[in-house]
Amino acid sequence: MLSCTIVRELLVDPSHHPRGAAHLSAASSLVRVHDHFYVVADDELQLGVFAATNRINLPLDLLPVFAGAMPHDNAARKQAKPDLEALAVLPGAPNWPAGALLALGSGSRSTRERGALITVGADGRATGPVEGIDLSALYFPLHARFADLNIEGAFVACGKLHLLHRGNSADARNACVCFSWDHTAAWLAGAQVSPPAVLSVQCISLGMVGGVPLGLTDAAALPGGAWVFCAVAEDTGSSYHDGSCIGSVVGVVATDGTVRTLQRLQGAPKVEGIAVQCDAASLLLSMVTDADDPDIASQLLQVRWQHAI
Fold it and tell me: Are 85 and 42 in contact (CB under 8 A)?
C-alpha cells in the first residue's frame, strides 16, 4: 500500500474567482508541462495553473476556458457544468508548434460534450486565445458502446489519442479508446471536417474494492507505450451521481492493454488526476483529489512508487 504526501491545497484568490470561491473543490485531471501544473475541475469554467516548484499554499492562477459563470447553487451548478474530466498534453503540430492542451468534457450528458484547445509556448505557459471544441461527433460512436459514457482521462502516445472511459457499479467496464493522432490533430485544426474514426476499444479489468468496482479516473503516458493510471471504487451506479469512495489505486497498463501492476493508496483519497515523472527505478506520481464537497479544497498529493515499471 502506498502512502501519499499532501503537498498543498488548491487554493485560489476569491477576488479572481467568478463565484468568489477560495479553492478548487472538484479537481478532475492533472498534467505537467515543463515547470507548470495544469488542473481541470469538473464544476469550473477555468483551468487552475501553478508552478510545479510551488509547495506552499500560494493561490493558483485561473485560466478561463469557457465564457460565462457557473451558478452558485450546488445542484444547479452540477446540472449546468461542462464536466471537464480529462486534460491531455498534445505534441507540437503546425497550428500549435510548441504543443497544446486539450480539455475534454465527460460526454455523460449532451451539455458535457464540449472541449477546449489551449496553445502553450516553449516554456509551457499558455499562449493565445482558447479555442472551443464541439466533441459531440467524436463521442457519437462511443455512446453506442457505452450507455453511460464517462470520459475521465486522455493522453497522446505512440501516434494515438487515448480516451479513458470510466465504469461504475451499474456497468463496471473500463475502457481505453484509441484514435489516430494525425487524424485527430487535423480535425482539431479544422483541416479535416469529419472526426477521426475509432481505431480500437480495449476493456481494462481492474477488479473491486469492498465489493465496489474500480473505475478509471485519469492516466498519463510512460516511455515505451505503457501508461500509468489512477482509479477509485466509488459506490455509485451513475456517471452523474456521486458516491462514497471505498478505495483508490494506481496502476500500470502494459502496451498490450493488460494491467501490469496495481497498488492501493492508503486512506483511500479520491484521486481524479495524475501526472508522472519517471526514472529507471521509480515513478514520481502527482495526483489531485475531488472532495465531492464544495467546502473542502482539492489537494495535490505525491508519492514515489519504487520499481513500478
Answer: yes
Assigned C-alpha cell, 214 = 474500480
pLDDT value of residue 147: 93
Q: Residue 288 in contact with residue 275, Cβ under 8 Å?
A: no
Q: Which of 294, 217, 210, 203 is nearest to 250 (CA)?
A: 217
Q: Where are the domains of the chain?
A: 5-306
pLDDT value, residue 166: 96
pLDDT at 238: 54
Measure the CA–CA gap between 118 and 227, rounded to whole angstroms: 23
Distances (CA, A) of 73 to 56, 76, 112, 201, 234: 30, 5, 19, 38, 24
pLDDT-flagged residues of the chain (< 70): 55, 237-241, 308-309
- Rounded to the nearest angstrom, the gap between the alpha carbon of residue 162 and the centroid of all alpha carbons in its chain is 12
Nearest to 149 by CA among 157, 161, 141: 141
Maximum CA extent, the chain: 48
Contact 229, 274 (CB under 8 A): yes
What SS3 class is residue 110?
helix
Helix (H) or strand (E) holding 119: strand 114-119
Buried-state track 232-262, b at ≥16 Cβ within 10 A, e below 16? bbbbbeebbeebebbbbbbbbbeeeeebeee
Query: Nearest-5° angle of CA 199, CA 158, CA 85?
Result: 70
Positive or negative CA dihedral for 79, 81, 85, 90? positive
CATH fold, domain 5-306, is Neuraminidase (2.120.10)
pTM above 0.90?
yes
How far out from the chain centre does Cα 277 lie? Answer: 16
Query: Is 222:276 a contact under the CB 8 Å cutoff?
Result: yes
